[in-house]
Amino acid sequence: MTSTFTISEEDTSRAWQRLMDQGRTTLARRTLEVSLHHFTTALHMCETYPGLAKNKYLVLGNLGWISRLSGKYPQAIETLEQALALADALPGPPTRERVQIAGELGTIYRLMDRHEDAQRVFAEQYKVAKGMDLRGATCRAIGNLGMANYQRAAALWEQQQEEKKEKENGKDNPDVVHQVRDLVKLAMEQLQERIQRASVIESYEDRVRGSHGSTTRGNKARGWATTGHCRLSLCSTLLASIDPKNRHEMLGQAEEHAETGFQRANYDTGLTFSRFFLGRVLLQRGRKDEALEYFDAHKDEKGSYWYPKMSTPAILFSKEHSNEHRGYLRELVDAGADLDTIDDEGYDALEYTIFNGDRASEDIIINGLRKRGVSESKIKERLDTAHLRKGYREIFQEKLRPLLYQGKKDTIKNIRRVYAETIAADAQKSKVFDHLKYIRYTDFENFGRLPRSSDGLVRSFKLGPNGEDDNHVDLLIFFSYRWINTDRSLNTPDDAEHTQYRRMLLAVEQFLGEPGNQWIEREKLCIWMDFACVDQDDPSKGVSSLPIIITQCDLTISLIDDQYFERAWCCVEAKMAGALVYGRETHKWYEQIPVFRKEDDGKVQVTTWELQQRINHYVDMENKKLTFESDRPKVVFLGRQSTFLELIN
């Protein structure tokens, strides 16, 4: 008799809403990788359950926002346009979310210097939102409209200055000056309206909440006002450039606006944003040392950061590329601002420019590093690390995670196929990551010791001419173990007694002897172990690929001893294995642990090794030992990536 389990439409709706709530919360905190997980899972549900199909545009709107924050503007536009088309196809008047999606599209136009398109979209959004009495959307729309008008003015002024340089004894065109001044005046009126509307919302929310603290909506309104004040400082500094006679007065007004924005900032990104604009005005007023206090990450007397470490202005403007942000980055570089801080996501400013693919921003950061005395070799090392991390993110997040989420019987085979196709199709990734390699167990068994990469036992996983799987691999075992040899002259990670080799043989036989494993053909049983499958004469690609290789293996066997969890790379492998088995049946993880016996003389001896399956294992990544300390940032980063694999469930 078979039984079926059906998930009700109400349950799926609750699960979907929970994902959306989690995604919006993490997106508001700018933890993009976590929010991306929540929204891609929600999108999968919309495409799987017919009852949720009508909500697809809501998910796409948030995914478009993530793409914008990641600097992927063409992808963001495509996603948002698809979201708007789906929203418009639904019966009834425009929804609040539809208005918000339109505003997000306008923001991308503004970042791409498509000022007229941005002005058109924001003006339409403002009209619709105001007609629907959407106070928050109206507030944001008028503020964005003001910023679009400011940017039109700034572009006109910059063009005027370029033309003046080309002419001998060139002077400002009075008509252009008048036009710029009018646009700035209009922008300031619109930004003041934004601040006023935000203050009304915040006051209302404070009255509703009473003595119980701020509401989420009240905090958002406070943030909108903060942004308005910061952008008013931009307007005042532009007026200072237009009218040198009133420069001192205009810069004074700019400092007042920026100071107000800084004092009112109440969330991490807003605080970073406001710090920059206050520092920018101070810099223009000749107070460079004070400006750097706002540009850089400094600690107080107790060693604590006086503002959140999670970001600096350089990081903030490296995340979203635009001519506006490139200009801010140049100002930061010229001032000598810090470019080395790593945020709470584990990335620095250079890495964000690599992630979003903006070569111009990348060049600005690199020039800044050179000005700070960073050597060319160190810059190359940082660039290589950034490209490596970008590859990890794209492979884990975009390629492997959707397959793991599906959790089908052939998931691991699909992962091997997709990885092989990705490496073959992407020249950049093929320079960074190695192909999947393996040793047939029968060859390993007959070799008599741990083979080296140069011993000729290793094969590369290859797809057939029609994309079919390599038919030599039915089951692939990843061996995680500690290099126990202390005599480097032996040229092996094993000791003279071949302890690790014998443990591997025993572990495989113990696994094959378990009930349910009789189907495994020994001829198609394969293993991966680093000394053989990583090129020992040029190990960089193999080492970089290691965590991705674990994902392509059916099971991991960790050879546990008293020092295994002291080693950083062992901990990375164990953390990855634990993340892969947590809540899913596609992968398995075993630990081979020692069995002890106490002798008559009181000494404790290892009598044998026992294989046991693990469901999960907490792995502490702090202060683990490394042969090469330069590997630590990579180890920390990969430990974080394994956390995202756990979030798939």
UniProtKB/TrEMBL annotation:
InterPro entries xrefs: TPR-like_helical_dom_sf, TPR_rpt
Classification via SMART domains: TPR
Name under which the protein is recorded: Uncharacterized protein
Species annotation: Cercophora newfieldiana
UniProt lineage: Eukaryota, Fungi, Dikarya, Ascomycota, Pezizomycotina
